[in-house]
Structures are given as C-alpha cells and as structure tokens.
Amino acid sequence: MTLRLRTVLGPHGQTAGLKSGEITVQGATLDFETFKRMPDAYRRMARTAEFDVCELAPTTYLIARAKGVPITALPIPMTRRFRHAGLVRREGSPISEPKDLEGKRVGIRAYTVTAGTWTRGVLAEEYGLDTSKVHWITEEEENIPDADLPPNVTRVDEKLSALFARGELDAGFAGLAGIGDPPEGESYIDMFDKPAPLEAAWFKKTGIYPIHGLITVRNDVLAANPELPQALMDAFVAAKTLYLADVFAGVRDEAEDRRYRKLADLVGDPLPYGFTANKPSLEALVRYSEDQGFIKNMPSLEALFLPIEPASKNQEN
C-alpha cells in the first residue's frame, strides 16, 4: 500500500516537478495542500505538527523543536538569499553604519522571522552591533505564540509602515519582513550602499549561504518509514535538477530564476541539498538564533537536521 503524505510546499520552481507529478517519491504519494500565505502553514505545522511533510521557516522550526513539537528537518533548503540588503532607513537619516542602530527603534514583522535573524547575525558578527541594545518593534504574533523573546522586543497594535511614515521608527526591514515597500515617489535607503560585494566577500570567508525554508517531517512518519528521508531527498534533487536545467538554458527567466542564475557565479550550485553542503549555514543559523535569545540548549546539529545526502553526486552537479 502506497504511503500518502499530506504535504505543503511554497510556490518554488524547484518543486514544480513534484507538484506536477513528473517527479515522484519512491514508495509515497505527496497529497499537496495549498496556502495563500505560507506563514499560515508554518504556524499550523509548528504548533500542532498537522502535516506529514511541510516547508517551514528555519527559525520557526528551531523554536518548535525547542518547545517539543515532534518534527525533524531534512537538509533540503527551499530558498536562498543573502541578507546584507533589506534593512532600510529613510533618506536623510543620521544612521550610517550598523552600530548606529543601538538605542534606536527598528521595525520587523515578528522578531523571530528568518530574514531578521540572518541580518542581525551578520550585523553582530561582522560589524559589532549589540542587538540587545536595539529596540525591536513588531506588529504580528510570532509563529509560535509562546516563543521566548528578549526584553528589548515590543509588539504594537499598528502597522509598522504607518510608524515608519510618521518617523516613529528609525529603521525597518523592507517588504514582507517589516515595513513594506516605500510609498510612490519615495525611496528607502539600504544600510549598505553596495551590499552585493559585501555578501560575496562574506560568503567566501565563511561559506555561509543563508537558508529561508526547510522541509520538515513528522517524527511518527519518520519512525514508521525509515527509508522516507532518502526517498524525499532523491525526489527533491530530481525536481531541482529539472528546474535548474531550464534556468541555465534560459527557458525559465522570471526574476527568481535570474537571481539564481546570477548567484551561481558566486556559490556554484544555487540550491545545494544535503547535510554536508549546508552544514556551515545550519551551524550559523542555530548560533544566531541562540545569540538572539529565542532558543537555548539545543540538541546536536545532526539531531536537528537529518544528516542525509543526495544519493549520487552526479545528481547535484
């Protein structure tokens, strides 16, 4: 009897082959469920382990594990993006470097969102920012309501965009991570004028390639089906291989496709799967999350992220 798995994945090119049925999982059928907003799926998985297989924000996953939710992540990242860009200030702001944020009010949708965790980690380790001296202002409930937050986090009952427009925030995360996009005729200024060279230098120094989205599986499903993690890895690799072939051939040419094509010049495989390839990034994610005060006393990296690899190196090349 074929194993049927309730599955939620975001709208990624590298999962299209799985959703269309062109790529299948050996011994299992993925029954896909669709969400208009992926954070809604994140919350349901992180709070009650509702789905068998579900994409989850990495920081939400770590908090869920810290709270005892019975799920485990596979080293199959869904989205990659460097985070030196995206923290913005208004034109004419006196903020000129990361240390200037100390003592200031900075808007972010929720404190534990993955984008913010990566940016705070970079600013702390590379530029000396003491994140405990920044007043983090949030507008949404955390994906896990009882997440442990540091005392310098305050939730408000108003849109961050309105606070920023009135000058009640000194800086904020742009787009969905915080204050949204600038009003027509206005512009926001990134913390770094030219983030791309800084990101490239940081990657070459550290090997860290920020992860936004991981595949998680219910522990009872894993226990009953020990062959499933490798079967999922092989299927995700096959779907990714189809996608990247189209990206590099120019068949796929949307903004996200072009972004990965450009990233390949720096990182090689823009969507690396497997424990070994992602270990530096996973280690950094756990370290940043602990440093920022919302997880502690976590198990080993291998217990958090199953140490599986693509079955064949040829699949990843």
TrEMBL record:
SUPFAM superfamilies: Periplasmic binding protein-like II (SSF53850). Its EC number is 4.1.1.55. It holds the Pfam family Phosphonate-bd. It comes from the Bacteria. Keywords: Lyase. One of its GO terms (molecular function) is 4,5-dihydroxyphthalate decarboxylase activity. It is an enzyme of class 4 (lyase). This is 4,5-dihydroxyphthalate decarboxylase. It comes from Sphingobium boeckii.
